[in-house]
Amino acid sequence: MRTINTRDFSRATRSTSRQINRLILLNLVRELQPISRADLARRMAVGRGMVTTLVKELLAEGAVYEGALADVPRGRRPKMLHVRTRDRLVVAIDIRFSRTYVLLSDFGGNEMALESFATIFNPDQLLDELAIRVRRLLRTRATGGHCEGIGMVVPGMVDRRGRVLNAPQLGWRDVQIRSGLAERTGLPVHVENSGAACALAHIWLGPGEGGNGVRDFVYVTVSDGVGTGVVVNGELVRGHGHTAGEFGHIPIGPDGPRCVCGAQGCLEAHTSNLATVARYVGHEQSPAVAPPLFPQDGITMDDVIVRAGAGDERARAALTETGRYLGLGLAAIVNALNPAQIVIGGEITGAWDLVEPAIRAEIARRALTREAAGTPVVPEPAGSLPRLRGAIALVAAPVYAAPEVG
Amino acid sequence: MRTINTRDFSRATRSTSRQINRLILLNLVRELQPISRADLARRMAVGRGMVTTLVKELLAEGAVYEGALADVPRGRRPKMLHVRTRDRLVVAIDIRFSRTYVLLSDFGGNEMALESFATIFNPDQLLDELAIRVRRLLRTRATGGHCEGIGMVVPGMVDRRGRVLNAPQLGWRDVQIRSGLAERTGLPVHVENSGAACALAHIWLGPGEGGNGVRDFVYVTVSDGVGTGVVVNGELVRGHGHTAGEFGHIPIGPDGPRCVCGAQGCLEAHTSNLATVARYVGHEQSPAVAPPLFPQDGITMDDVIVRAGAGDERARAALTETGRYLGLGLAAIVNALNPAQIVIGGEITGAWDLVEPAIRAEIARRALTREAAGTPVVPEPAGSLPRLRGAIALVAAPVYAAPEVG
DNA sequence: GGACTTTAGTTCGATCGACGAACAAGAGAG
DNA sequence: CTCTCTTGTTCGTCGATCGAACTAAAGTCC
Fold first, then answer.
1. What is the distance between the alpha carbons of residues A402 and A234, in angstroms, rounded to a whole number?
2. Closest residue in chain B to residue A400, using alpha carbons only
3. What structural domains and CATH numbers belong to chain B?
4. What is the reported pLDDT for A261?
5. For position B284, what pLDDT does the model report?
6. Interface check A112 vs B, CB under 8 A
7. Strand pairing of B341-345 and B217-222?
8. Do B267 and B221 form a contact (C-beta atoms < 8 A)?
9. Of A377, A393, A398, nearest to A220 (Cα)?
């Protein structure tokens, strides 16, 4: 039940129906490949004739290709269809506090080459370095493919025009990085916040080969900071100023540690890796300065997790405490948005057996309905590179996105 | 950038384009009436011929009607079009803790008859009473019109099938009220949570005659409880289990008063009318029992507002304190969803001069970007009956809603 | 091995709807 | 009365869906 925006709508023209059906067909191929024309016709409840003409168009454009004949028990053997991803390339860039990662990938999310370097905090120098690496990657590793764009993920807020409004970890404020990289490389560049990008990755390249069925979820990354991406009806919510998704700064205790955002008691201040490490080390207060001192007393989040696994009671307590606070924040999200699922990413998933029960208990305690109390909270599989996959999705998603109508 | 739902999509058929354009046209008439065919053609960037045929259809169905000829400086005088609302009737019902309101209205939100009675807490008896009153209203006051349905608003959570999951103020749990009233009256019945309904009213019957331009906002009702309705891209967010919008229960202080939901430190526990009155009267703790004892020590929220207006310093302090806590909650909403606007409803808007500065200060302090810090917070005009207008919108909105495509 | 059945994919005419041009209907200006 | 300007209608064209007929390719039955 959406209102029609009478100030800026898109009317149906002669070609609208065809566009819609072409996109539906392309998405069906994407999610169900390999698939035959006859199968597509059945799924779309349409005559096979129409599928023939639509596929003919998509074949001519190179959006799909014909694969092998399938074996069927009776009748003529169908010619299977696939989406063309192999020679459509993307450069995904993940800028983090410690290191910056550059990945060459195809549209399907298959990794072709991954490299990284220590993050340069001067934006111009960083873009210079990135441009050099992108060009080199494309020259040496992109054999026979065409690069369709660059997706870049940043730990901070980004506006619609690719300007970084505020990235406390990098010390950036109002930095235009999209146009900078676009000019240097001559490629279209997309920039997004890391939490939002992870959510995008989960929509478009999620488990189950190109999108799992969940269309309402919240992605929460627990890392140096706490980022969130909100997805409603298969669409990432970015808000009026494109800065939605900062659930990391909902207050869950006014007397808690001071947060990098300046306020006190934020979810992030209680549950970031820094907070967990600080809790383990002993000082309950995390430092108020930004960028945060990363390896604190030489101990990292991974160390805490390893020690907890080895039976260190103080480490276990620090992690379950983090889980409890995280559960408090997730309960707020559950009540506020009632998602079908919450996905957790970040190092903390390495101690899932310790963290999950604390999260679950807190959600069950504070959720307002029985159904909401049972909202699944699932960890992102380790090593799945969600930020980089999000960067890929930034480039690949527009090709498959639903048309705006009405 | 929405994904196409490959499990449940709507393909474009021969008539899809026509449906889309008809709905756009109907919405243009709704928002810009009176309007001529030629104007519609210009706005839709379409030939006048198409407008003629579309309007002919809408006229035949009775969705629009032709009004008077307009005066223009040159050329043939255009025949103005209007949407037919006058004889399309709705019964709106608002069930509250103290009283239940029944309003007969037309599709345009014009009030024809309003009555109320003390709420009966037994659902069956309440539905009996409502059925009697609905029938009487329609028999005596609905002259020459046809009732297209009943919209019912409840202070609690409602599922998609019109079952009240939990309404603590009424003491209801798992009560099917939609089918109960539908059977008694023979009319289609829609049931919604009151916060969501207020947001709906603001989308569909908002200031500016049928929808203001704001398509991303959050409506917050501060009353016996704190309800919220989240609107993203002109669409009410209801979540997976249809219970989204309970921002009233985000934690903003773990050591705060106990909330009716069982948890501690909820936004609602700090900012409901009950909390404000309790703060004024002196006990910082509100009673833990539900339903709440409404007139506490004989003093109501309205009393506090009146006394604050008369210069009572304790009343003023209680209200600004409520504003401060409310600002804390709204800051969380601003960071999480980045709405273009926040709308506040409820008795508290009667002391807006006291409350607003506190809210604004708290949002400015905690918002993460300069733009978000300036998010407009506007009060719903007093006496605008937002809940009942929401109930009307429940029935009227589906007629004008955008088609689901893709 | 030839007829029959079954399924996949293509072709083609019917019909519907957008689109643009021509046309009729008012209304004021000169 | 004629010219101009604007509104609203009509009609032929063209693009797209839709269903029926047709071809292609496989296995099965007698």
1. 10
2. B3
3. 17-83 (1.10.10.10), 88-201+388-400 (3.30.420.40), 206-384 (3.30.420.40)
4. 73
5. 47
6. no
7. parallel
8. no
9. A377
Backbone angles phi, psi at B378, to 5 degrees: -115, 140
Q: Give pLDDT tens digits for B31-89.
A: 998 999 999 999 999 999 999 999 999 999 999 999 988 888 888 999 999 999 888 99
A189: three-class secondary structure by DSSP: strand
Q: Is A374 on the interface with B (CB under 8 A)?
A: no
Contact: B241, A369; criterion CB under 8 Å: yes
Do residue A243 and residue B3 have CB atoms under 8 angstroms apart?
no
Q: Which of residues 54-73 of A touch B (CB under 8 A)?
A: none
Distance A391 CA to C26 C1' (A): 61
d(CA B382, CA B336): 28
Positions 53-82 in A, CB within 7 angstroms of strand D: 53-54, 69, 73-77
Task: Say what the pLDDT of residue B257 is.
Answer: 74
Computed from CA positions of residues B205, B207, B212, B216, in that sequence, does the dihedral angle turn out positive or negative? negative
Say yes or no: A405 contacts chain B, CB-CB below 8 A: yes
Query: Can you say whether the dihedral through the CA atoms of B268, B271, B277, B283 is positive or negative?
Result: positive
Q: For chain A, what's the residue count?
A: 406
Residues of chain A found within 8 Å of residue B165, distances taken between Cβ atoms: 369, 371
Sequence-ordered strand ranges (E) for A255-390: 341-345, 377-379
Q: How far is the CA of A52 from the C1' of C12 (A)?
A: 14
Chain A 302-341, residues with CB within 8 Å of chain B CB atoms: 328, 331-332, 335-340
**Per-residue pLDDT reduced to its tens digit, A311-329:** 888 999 999 999 999 999 9
Hunting for tokens 């009151």 — which residue is that? Answer: B194
Where is pLDDT greater, at B264 or B59? B59
List CB contacts (< 8 A) between A31 and chain B: 6
pLDDT tens per residue across span A68-120: 888 888 889 999 999 998 889 999 999 998 899 999 999 988 899 999 999 99
What predicted TM-score, i.e. pTM, was given to this entire model? 0.90
In a 10 Å sphere around its CB, with 0-12 CB exposed, 13-18 middle and 19+ buried, how is residue A82 labelled? middle
**pLDDT of B21 above 50:** yes
> Is residue B61 classed as helix, strand or coil in its secondary structure?
helix
CA distance A42 to A59: 20
Q: Is the peptide bond before A386 cis (omega within 30 degrees of 0)?
A: no
Strands A79-83 and A64-69, sheet pairing: antiparallel
CA of A396 to C1' of C7 (A): 35
End-to-end CA distance of chain B: 12
Chain B residue nearest residue A335, CA to CA: B246
B28 vs A6: CB contact, 8 Å cut-off? yes
- Return d(Cα B275, Cα B269) in angstroms, integer: 6
Spatial distance between the Cα atoms of B202 and B242, rounded to a whole number of angstroms:
19
Nearest nucleotide to A14 (CA to C1') is C18
Of the ranges A100-104, A344-348, B137-141, which is most confident? A100-104
DSSP B18-46: HHHHHHHHHHHHHHH-SB-HHHHHHHHT-
pLDDT confidence of residue B382: 78
- The residues pairing with A345 across neighbouring beta strands, listed in sequence order, are A221
Mean pLDDT of chain A: 89
pLDDT in tens, A242-281: 999 888 888 877 667 777 777 777 888 889 888 898 888 8
**Which of B203, B226, B338 to mutate: most A Cβ within 10 Å?**
B338
Averaged over B153-181, what is the pLDDT? 92
How distant is the Cα of A265 from the closest Cα of chain B, in angstroms? 9
Convert the pLDDT of each residue in B210-263 to its tens digit: 456 788 999 999 988 888 999 999 999 999 999 998 888 888 776 677 777 777
Interface A–B counts its CB contacts (< 8 A) at 261
For tokens 């004739």, what's the residue? A49
